[in-house]
Protein backbone atom coordinates (compact mmCIF):
# COMPACT_ATOMS: atom_id res chain seq x y z
CA UNK A 1 0.00 0.00 0.00
CA UNK A 2 1.39 3.39 -1.02
CA UNK A 3 2.50 5.70 1.78
CA UNK A 4 0.19 8.64 2.41
CA UNK A 5 1.16 12.17 3.39
CA UNK A 6 -0.78 14.75 5.35
CA UNK A 7 -2.02 17.63 3.22
CA UNK A 8 -4.53 20.41 3.64
CA UNK A 9 -7.19 21.86 1.45
CA UNK A 10 -7.71 25.55 0.80
CA UNK A 11 -10.21 25.75 3.65
CA UNK A 12 -7.70 24.31 6.12
CA UNK A 13 -9.26 20.83 6.18
CA UNK A 14 -6.73 18.03 6.70
CA UNK A 15 -6.52 15.00 4.42
CA UNK A 16 -4.06 12.37 3.17
CA UNK A 17 -2.66 11.77 -0.31
CA UNK A 18 -0.10 9.46 -1.87
CA UNK A 19 3.01 10.92 -3.47
CA UNK A 20 1.62 10.22 -6.94
CA UNK A 21 -1.62 12.02 -6.04
CA UNK A 22 0.31 15.04 -4.77
CA UNK A 23 2.45 15.04 -7.93
CA UNK A 24 -0.71 15.06 -10.05
CA UNK A 25 -2.19 17.93 -8.01
CA UNK A 26 0.97 19.98 -8.56
CA UNK A 27 0.83 19.33 -12.30
CA UNK A 28 -2.83 20.34 -12.52
CA UNK A 29 -2.22 23.47 -10.46
CA UNK A 30 0.66 24.76 -12.55
CA UNK A 31 -1.22 23.99 -15.76
CA UNK A 32 -4.22 25.97 -14.51
CA UNK A 33 -2.07 29.04 -13.77
CA UNK A 34 -0.18 28.75 -17.04
CA UNK A 35 -3.40 28.63 -19.03
CA UNK A 36 -5.03 31.53 -17.21
CA UNK A 37 -1.99 33.82 -17.21
CA UNK A 38 -0.58 32.75 -20.57
CA UNK A 39 2.75 32.03 -18.86
CA UNK A 40 5.08 29.00 -18.75
CA UNK A 41 4.21 26.25 -16.25
CA UNK A 42 6.72 25.15 -13.64
CA UNK A 43 9.50 22.99 -15.06
CA UNK A 44 9.62 19.28 -14.25
CA UNK A 45 12.52 19.99 -11.87
CA UNK A 46 10.56 22.72 -10.08
CA UNK A 47 7.53 20.46 -9.77
CA UNK A 48 9.69 17.78 -8.15
CA UNK A 49 11.15 20.39 -5.80
CA UNK A 50 7.62 21.42 -4.83
CA UNK A 51 6.71 17.76 -4.33
CA UNK A 52 9.66 17.40 -1.97
CA UNK A 53 8.51 20.43 0.04
CA UNK A 54 4.93 19.14 0.26
CA UNK A 55 6.03 15.69 1.48
CA UNK A 56 8.62 16.74 4.06
CA UNK A 57 7.88 14.87 7.31
CA UNK A 58 8.32 17.85 9.64
CA UNK A 59 5.30 19.89 10.66
CA UNK A 60 7.27 23.13 10.23
CA UNK A 61 9.80 23.54 7.41
CA UNK A 62 12.22 26.35 6.59
CA UNK A 63 14.82 27.53 4.11
CA UNK A 64 18.51 26.79 4.52
CA UNK A 65 20.61 29.21 6.60
CA UNK A 66 21.63 32.17 4.48
CA UNK A 67 18.59 31.99 2.22
CA UNK A 68 16.25 33.91 4.50
CA UNK A 69 14.25 36.84 3.14
CA UNK A 70 13.03 40.02 4.82
CA UNK A 71 9.47 40.46 6.00
CA UNK A 72 7.12 43.41 5.74
CA UNK A 73 3.55 43.41 6.98
CA UNK A 74 0.24 45.11 6.41
CA UNK A 75 -2.10 46.18 9.19
CA UNK A 76 0.60 44.87 11.51
CA UNK A 77 -0.30 46.90 14.58
CA UNK A 78 -3.84 45.51 14.53
CA UNK A 79 -2.95 41.83 14.23
CA UNK A 80 -1.47 41.75 17.72
CA UNK A 81 -3.87 44.05 19.56
CA UNK A 82 -7.24 43.74 17.82
CA UNK A 83 -7.16 40.24 16.35
CA UNK A 84 -5.43 38.63 19.31
CA UNK A 85 -7.55 40.59 21.77
CA UNK A 86 -4.66 42.09 23.72
CA UNK A 87 -5.36 45.30 25.61
CA UNK A 88 -2.42 47.28 24.24
CA UNK A 89 -2.03 50.36 22.09
CA UNK A 90 -0.68 50.33 18.56
CA UNK A 91 2.81 51.57 19.37
CA UNK A 92 3.22 48.73 21.88
CA UNK A 93 2.13 46.34 19.13
CA UNK A 94 4.92 47.77 16.97
CA UNK A 95 7.45 46.99 19.70
CA UNK A 96 6.14 43.42 19.87
CA UNK A 97 6.62 43.15 16.10
CA UNK A 98 10.17 44.43 16.44
CA UNK A 99 11.48 42.92 19.67
CA UNK A 100 9.51 39.66 19.97
CA UNK A 101 8.39 38.65 16.48
CA UNK A 102 11.65 39.95 14.95
CA UNK A 103 9.97 41.57 11.96
CA UNK A 104 12.26 43.41 9.56
CA UNK A 105 9.75 46.24 9.24
CA UNK A 106 6.36 47.07 10.67
CA UNK A 107 3.30 49.06 9.75
CA UNK A 108 1.29 51.53 11.78
CA UNK A 109 -2.38 51.29 10.85
CA UNK A 110 -5.81 52.35 12.05
CA UNK A 111 -8.63 49.88 12.63
CA UNK A 112 -10.68 51.69 9.96
CA UNK A 113 -8.11 50.59 7.42
CA UNK A 114 -8.91 52.83 4.43
CA UNK A 115 -7.53 56.18 3.28
CA UNK A 116 -10.92 57.92 3.17
CA UNK A 117 -11.62 57.75 6.94
CA UNK A 118 -7.92 58.16 7.78
CA UNK A 119 -7.79 61.57 6.13
CA UNK A 120 -10.29 62.94 8.65
CA UNK A 121 -8.17 61.88 11.63
CA UNK A 122 -4.75 62.39 10.09
CA UNK A 123 -3.70 64.75 12.90
CA UNK A 124 -4.10 61.90 15.42
CA UNK A 125 -2.33 59.41 13.15
CA UNK A 126 0.60 61.79 12.76
CA UNK A 127 1.00 61.86 16.55
CA UNK A 128 0.92 58.06 16.64
CA UNK A 129 3.63 57.93 13.98
CA UNK A 130 5.77 60.36 16.00
CA UNK A 131 5.55 58.04 19.02
CA UNK A 132 6.23 54.99 16.87
CA UNK A 133 9.38 56.50 15.39
CA UNK A 134 10.68 57.51 18.80
CA UNK A 135 10.35 53.97 20.17
CA UNK A 136 11.37 51.72 17.29
CA UNK A 137 14.52 50.90 15.35
CA UNK A 138 13.12 48.98 12.36
CA UNK A 139 11.46 50.86 9.47
CA UNK A 140 7.84 51.74 10.23
CA UNK A 141 5.46 52.23 7.32
CA UNK A 142 1.96 53.68 7.43
CA UNK A 143 -0.69 51.81 5.51
CA UNK A 144 -4.32 51.57 4.47
CA UNK A 145 -6.47 50.55 1.50
CA UNK A 146 -7.68 52.71 -1.42
CA UNK A 147 -11.10 51.03 -0.96
CA UNK A 148 -13.07 52.88 -3.63
CA UNK A 149 -16.34 51.39 -2.37
CA UNK A 150 -16.35 53.81 0.57
CA UNK A 151 -16.88 56.73 -1.80
CA UNK A 152 -20.30 55.45 -2.92
CA UNK A 153 -23.64 56.63 -1.59
CA UNK A 154 -25.05 56.68 1.07
CA UNK A 155 -21.66 56.96 2.81
CA UNK A 156 -19.89 58.80 0.00
CA UNK A 157 -20.57 61.35 -2.74
CA UNK A 158 -20.80 59.14 -5.85
CA UNK A 159 -23.21 56.57 -7.23
CA UNK A 160 -22.77 52.90 -6.38
CA UNK A 161 -21.61 51.01 -9.46
CA UNK A 162 -22.51 47.71 -7.79
CA UNK A 163 -26.13 48.88 -8.03
CA UNK A 164 -25.83 50.73 -11.34
CA UNK A 165 -24.27 47.87 -13.29
CA UNK A 166 -27.04 45.31 -12.59
CA UNK A 167 -29.56 47.99 -13.58
CA UNK A 168 -27.87 48.30 -16.97
CA UNK A 169 -26.66 51.85 -16.33
CA UNK A 170 -23.17 51.19 -17.67
CA UNK A 171 -22.24 54.79 -18.48
CA UNK A 172 -23.37 56.01 -15.05
CA UNK A 173 -21.45 53.20 -13.34
CA UNK A 174 -18.27 54.10 -15.19
CA UNK A 175 -18.71 57.81 -14.45
CA UNK A 176 -19.18 57.03 -10.74
CA UNK A 177 -15.96 55.03 -10.64
CA UNK A 178 -14.04 57.78 -12.40
CA UNK A 179 -15.29 60.36 -9.90
CA UNK A 180 -14.47 58.07 -6.96
CA UNK A 181 -10.94 57.75 -8.29
CA UNK A 182 -10.38 61.48 -8.03
CA UNK A 183 -11.48 61.51 -4.39
CA UNK A 184 -9.33 58.47 -3.56
CA UNK A 185 -6.18 59.82 -5.18
CA UNK A 186 -6.52 63.09 -3.26
CA UNK A 187 -7.02 61.27 0.06
CA UNK A 188 -4.12 58.84 -0.47
CA UNK A 189 -1.70 61.60 -1.48
CA UNK A 190 -2.75 63.80 1.46
CA UNK A 191 -2.19 61.02 4.00
CA UNK A 192 1.12 60.02 2.41
CA UNK A 193 2.38 63.61 2.48
CA UNK A 194 1.47 64.04 6.15
CA UNK A 195 3.14 60.74 7.03
CA UNK A 196 6.26 61.73 5.15
CA UNK A 197 6.43 64.90 7.23
CA UNK A 198 5.82 62.84 10.39
CA UNK A 199 8.90 60.73 9.70
CA UNK A 200 7.30 57.55 8.38
CA UNK A 201 9.76 55.25 6.62
CA UNK A 202 7.31 54.52 3.82
CA UNK A 203 3.66 54.26 2.82
CA UNK A 204 1.73 51.08 2.02
CA UNK A 205 -1.25 50.82 -0.32
CA UNK A 206 -2.88 47.53 0.61
CA UNK A 207 -5.52 45.36 -1.11
CA UNK A 208 -5.23 47.35 -4.33
CA UNK A 209 -7.87 46.54 -6.91
CA UNK A 210 -10.42 45.22 -4.42
CA UNK A 211 -13.08 47.42 -6.04
CA UNK A 212 -11.90 46.67 -9.56
CA UNK A 213 -9.78 48.40 -12.18
CA UNK A 214 -10.75 51.89 -10.98
CA UNK A 215 -9.41 51.00 -7.54
CA UNK A 216 -6.12 49.88 -9.09
CA UNK A 217 -5.86 52.98 -11.28
CA UNK A 218 -6.46 55.25 -8.28
CA UNK A 219 -3.58 53.51 -6.50
CA UNK A 220 -1.19 53.80 -9.46
CA UNK A 221 -2.03 57.47 -9.97
CA UNK A 222 -1.61 58.20 -6.27
CA UNK A 223 1.77 56.46 -6.17
CA UNK A 224 2.96 58.50 -9.14
CA UNK A 225 1.97 61.75 -7.40
CA UNK A 226 3.56 60.66 -4.11
CA UNK A 227 6.85 59.82 -5.80
CA UNK A 228 6.83 63.14 -7.68
CA UNK A 229 6.36 65.00 -4.38
CA UNK A 230 8.79 62.86 -2.38
CA UNK A 231 11.19 60.88 -4.60
CA UNK A 232 12.94 59.37 -1.56
CA UNK A 233 9.72 58.04 0.05
CA UNK A 234 9.35 54.24 -0.36
CA UNK A 235 5.95 52.96 -1.49
CA UNK A 236 4.79 49.39 -0.96
CA UNK A 237 1.79 48.22 -2.99
CA UNK A 238 -0.04 44.95 -2.36
CA UNK A 239 -2.71 43.61 -4.66
CA UNK A 240 -6.15 42.31 -3.67
CA UNK A 241 -6.30 39.40 -6.10
CA UNK A 242 -4.45 37.55 -8.81
CA UNK A 243 -6.08 39.51 -11.63
CA UNK A 244 -7.64 42.96 -11.80
CA UNK A 245 -11.42 42.91 -12.02
CA UNK A 246 -12.84 44.93 -14.91
CA UNK A 247 -15.62 46.71 -13.06
CA UNK A 248 -15.09 49.64 -15.43
CA UNK A 249 -13.42 47.77 -18.25
CA UNK A 250 -11.95 50.66 -20.21
CA UNK A 251 -9.42 52.18 -17.82
CA UNK A 252 -5.75 52.33 -18.77
CA UNK A 253 -2.49 53.26 -17.10
CA UNK A 254 0.59 54.02 -19.18
CA UNK A 255 -1.34 52.88 -22.26
CA UNK A 256 -2.17 49.45 -20.79
CA UNK A 257 -5.74 48.31 -20.10
CA UNK A 258 -5.97 47.28 -16.44
CA UNK A 259 -8.85 44.80 -16.55
CA UNK A 260 -7.68 41.19 -16.53
CA UNK A 261 -4.00 41.81 -15.77
CA UNK A 262 -2.15 39.07 -13.86
CA UNK A 263 0.82 39.60 -11.46
CA UNK A 264 3.56 39.54 -14.13
CA UNK A 265 1.70 42.34 -15.93
CA UNK A 266 0.64 44.23 -12.81
CA UNK A 267 4.22 44.60 -11.60
CA UNK A 268 5.32 46.44 -14.75
CA UNK A 269 2.65 49.09 -14.17
CA UNK A 270 3.63 49.29 -10.51
CA UNK A 271 7.20 49.96 -11.61
CA UNK A 272 6.03 52.67 -14.00
CA UNK A 273 4.06 54.34 -11.21
CA UNK A 274 7.10 54.40 -8.91
CA UNK A 275 6.31 51.55 -6.52
CA UNK A 276 9.39 50.35 -4.61
CA UNK A 277 8.02 47.06 -3.20
CA UNK A 278 5.35 45.05 -5.03
CA UNK A 279 3.11 42.48 -3.33
CA UNK A 280 1.60 40.02 -5.83
CA UNK A 281 -1.41 38.03 -4.74
CA UNK A 282 -2.74 34.66 -5.89
CA UNK A 283 -6.15 33.57 -4.64
CA UNK A 284 -6.53 30.35 -2.66
CA UNK A 285 -9.21 27.98 -3.95
CA UNK A 286 -10.81 26.64 -0.77
CA UNK A 287 -12.06 23.46 -2.48
CA UNK A 288 -8.66 22.48 -3.91
CA UNK A 289 -5.68 20.92 -2.16
CA UNK A 290 -2.64 22.77 -0.86
CA UNK A 291 -0.34 21.17 -3.48
CA UNK A 292 -2.68 22.37 -6.25
CA UNK A 293 -2.90 25.87 -4.77
CA UNK A 294 0.81 26.32 -4.11
CA UNK A 295 1.66 25.11 -7.62
CA UNK A 296 -0.57 27.85 -9.03
CA UNK A 297 1.01 30.39 -6.69
CA UNK A 298 4.56 29.48 -7.68
CA UNK A 299 3.68 29.60 -11.38
CA UNK A 300 2.24 33.11 -11.15
CA UNK A 301 4.81 34.52 -8.73
CA UNK A 302 7.79 33.03 -10.57
CA UNK A 303 6.63 34.77 -13.76
CA UNK A 304 6.20 38.01 -11.82
CA UNK A 305 9.62 37.75 -10.20
CA UNK A 306 11.36 37.07 -13.51
CA UNK A 307 10.14 40.29 -15.15
CA UNK A 308 10.30 42.57 -12.11
CA UNK A 309 12.97 45.20 -11.55
CA UNK A 310 11.75 45.98 -8.01
CA UNK A 311 11.60 43.79 -4.89
CA UNK A 312 8.75 41.28 -4.78
CA UNK A 313 7.04 40.56 -1.44
CA UNK A 314 4.13 38.16 -2.11
CA UNK A 315 1.10 38.54 0.13
CA UNK A 316 1.02 35.47 2.35
CA UNK A 317 -1.98 36.26 4.52
CA UNK A 318 -5.23 34.41 5.03
CA UNK A 319 -6.63 33.01 1.78
CA UNK A 320 -3.86 34.07 -0.60
CA UNK A 321 -0.57 32.69 -1.94
CA UNK A 322 -1.20 29.15 -0.74
CA UNK A 323 -2.47 30.08 2.72
CA UNK A 324 -5.69 28.30 3.73
CA UNK A 325 -8.79 30.41 4.18
CA UNK A 326 -8.74 30.29 7.98
CA UNK A 327 -8.39 32.97 10.67
CA UNK A 328 -5.35 31.24 12.15
CA UNK A 329 -3.22 29.87 9.32
CA UNK A 330 -1.78 26.36 10.03
CA UNK A 331 2.01 26.48 10.28
CA UNK A 332 2.46 23.31 8.23
CA UNK A 333 0.86 25.00 5.22
CA UNK A 334 2.28 28.47 5.89
CA UNK A 335 5.89 27.35 6.24
CA UNK A 336 5.71 25.20 3.10
CA UNK A 337 4.22 28.06 1.11
CA UNK A 338 6.96 30.42 2.31
CA UNK A 339 9.72 27.92 1.53
CA UNK A 340 8.36 27.28 -1.96
CA UNK A 341 8.10 31.00 -2.72
CA UNK A 342 11.68 31.64 -1.62
CA UNK A 343 13.32 28.63 -3.27
CA UNK A 344 11.30 28.32 -6.49
CA UNK A 345 10.14 31.88 -7.17
CA UNK A 346 13.28 33.68 -5.94
CA UNK A 347 11.27 36.31 -4.11
CA UNK A 348 12.85 39.18 -2.17
CA UNK A 349 10.60 39.14 0.90
CA UNK A 350 7.30 38.09 2.39
TrEMBL record:
InterPro entries: Dimeth_MeTrfase_MtbB. SUPFAM superfamilies: FMN-linked oxidoreductases (SSF51395). Its EC number is 2.1.1.249. The keyword Transferase applies. Signal peptide: none annotated. It holds the Pfam family Dimeth_Pyl. It comes from the Bacteria. Keywords: Methyltransferase, Transferase. GO terms for molecular function: dimethylamine methyltransferase activity. This is Dimethylamine methyltransferase MtbB1. One of its GO terms (biological process) is methylation. It comes from uncultured Sporomusa sp.
Amino acid sequence: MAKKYFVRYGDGYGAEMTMDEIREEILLGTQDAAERGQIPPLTAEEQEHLLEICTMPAKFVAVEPGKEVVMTNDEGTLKVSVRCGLSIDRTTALLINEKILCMDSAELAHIDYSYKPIKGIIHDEVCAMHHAQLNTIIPVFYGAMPNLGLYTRPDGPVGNWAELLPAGEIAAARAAQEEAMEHAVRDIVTVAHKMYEAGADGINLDTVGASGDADALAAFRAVKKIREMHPDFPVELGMAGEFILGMHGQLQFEGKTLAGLYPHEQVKLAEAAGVTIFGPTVNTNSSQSFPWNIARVCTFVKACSEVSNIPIHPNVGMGVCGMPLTDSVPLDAASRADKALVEICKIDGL
